[in-house]
Design brief:
- InterPro entries: PDDEXK-like_halobact.
- It holds the Pfam family PDDEXK_18.
- With 221 residues, the protein is of the alpha+beta class.
- It has helices spanning 20-25, 28-42, 84-89, 93-106, 136-144, 146-150, 194-199, 205-212, and strands at 2-3, 47-56, 59-70, 74-82, 126-132, 155-158, 161-171, 181-184.
Length: 221
């Protein structure tokens, strides 16, 4: 499992409370609330904005959550959230990814959100995250479209600033705010891969959701 900010974190083994009914009812606003609590608990004076609009080159849109921290360089997290209702409404993974890539392309092109190159930068200046709730519906959606989501290249740029793309399940939603994490499905940890299996916390809602989906679909190598 990875913390939301990127570095690895130990996989919780004991005392993990099942998320069952709460996860089934979870909406994007509940996911956003947990992420806000996470950044308030783990970052010093983060700038956090929900439903942040952007407007660049006549392309308007709204992202679910925008977080800017300083470490000391500015690092932006631009986050799209998908729970059951959004997945059911979408015509397919292509629609979900079009929205995500539109966000990536135009968010920092908006002068209000522009990132400037900086000599000596030691980490990406922007992280574009597409985060799914750890529910059977979302697991089924990602599993069905694993090749498409897994093909998203993690390496990106925000103008002249290096950036990272991450497609992942949120996990640790029912625990301490600082322990919120990601299990990615692009990059090295593609869905069903050994790194993916190791990253799924034992007893977590994500682990339960994987078990709840048809065995013919969730087939690990």
């Amino acid at each position: 499992m990875w913390r939301v900010d990127g570095p690895p974190a130990p996989t919780p083994r004991a005392g993990f409370i099942a998320f069952r009914d709460v996860a089934e009812r979870m909406r994007e606003d509940a996911l956003a609330t947990r992420l806000v609590e996470h950044y308030e608990a783990t970052a010093e004076s983060p700038a956090i904005r929900l439903e942040e609009p952007y407007d660049a080159d006549g392309r308007e849109g709204v992202v679910d959550l925008f977080v800017r921290t300083r470490t000391p360089e500015a690092v932006d997290r631009v986050i799209e959230l998908k729970a059951d209702a959004a997945v059911r409404r979408a015509t397919g993974a292509n629609e979900v990814l079009r929205q995500y890539r539109r966000m990536e392309r135009y968010f920092h092109a908006d002068e209000r959100h522009a990132l400037r190159p900086k000599l000596g930068r030691t980490e990406p200046g922007a992280r574009y995250l597409l985060c799914f709730a750890p529910t059977p519906t979302c697991v089924h959606h990602v599993a069905t479209n694993r090749t498409l989501y897994g093909s998203v290249d993690p390496d990106a740029r925000a103008g002249d600033v290096p950036a990272v793309r991450t497609i992942a399940f949120l996990t640790g939603l029912d625990g301490d705010s600082a322990g919120l994490g990601l299990v990615s499905v692009n990059g090295e940890a593609k869905f069903g891969s050994e790194p993916f299996r190791r990253a799924v916390p034992d007893g977590s809602r994500l682990a339960e959701s994987l078990c709840a989906v048809d065995d013919d679909l969730i087939e690990f190598p």
